[in-house]
Fold Pseudouridine-5'-phosphate glycosidase.
Amino acid sequence: MSGPVLAPEVSEALAAGRPVVALESTIISHGLPWPDNLDLARAVEEEVRAGGAVPATIAVIDGTLRAGLDAEALERLARAEGIAKLSRADLAVCIARGGTGATTVAATMIAAARAGIAVFATGGIGGVHRGAERSFDVSADLQELAQTPVTVVASGAKAILDLPKTLEMLETLGVPVIAYGQSGFPAFWARESGLAAPLRMDAPAEIARAHLTRAGLGLPGGQLVANPIPAEAEIPLDELEGLIAQAQREAEAAGATGKAVTPALLDRLRALTQGRTLAANAALVRANARLGAAVAQEIARQRAEGAPPRAGPL
């Protein structure tokens, strides 16, 4: 299998050079409770459509990697319990076993690149976990950004992470980190992390040119577009820090490790904030879908007008 099975709408759009935006599925299976997860999945797809692009939610269904899910598959993912959470390491195994699983940022990037989808919109990327100097817990998302040529629109890295170390790792890996519309790096539920973003861009056309120019230079990897959460939905970082530290202590005491850490922390923070993080998640993912659609539109337009020629590998 060379790539995912494309939904007819996605296949037609790609063949015609129209904009398509990839969407992950772990936000459905692991990010939010039922039925909020299904409602958000549908709303995010509608945001992409409203922005003039075609949504391609990605998941593995009964051993088939799919880009573009019908209503039945979306609901199945939303209702299922104990569904696999797939990254680069276990994506192929799930497919080989005929399993069903939701794709993380890394796995979604792989599928998007195989399908020829240039833009992926999500909530927040994974990164370097707090205490990684002891646990060595670093998300595969960072390495994926360094090697897979997809522009990822997210609200920075999840606020539960060690953000300074995450930015340092992205710099080491040669990943462009672009703050959209501001100079500071956002922190998921918070518009500002207190850290400067390496790069700033203020227009989707500029982001699209950077994507195409990177491909033209033959550089591996993608770029991270850090889109701050809408101001009305923000939870400032100074309100969150104490709660994140508490959730971290509780997760460690419960023995959460590996892929279980992030869902455990997010669940606890949802309780500690009386659901405010849930509302913030919905707002930022929808905003990222809108920006992703705008960037995908610009990439399609600039390609039609004559994108930079692709050079050989450096």
About this structure: The chain has one domain: 5-306. The chain has a mean pLDDT of 93. The first helix runs from residue 8 to 15. The domain at 5-306 is CATH 3.40.1790.10 (Indigoidine synthase fold).
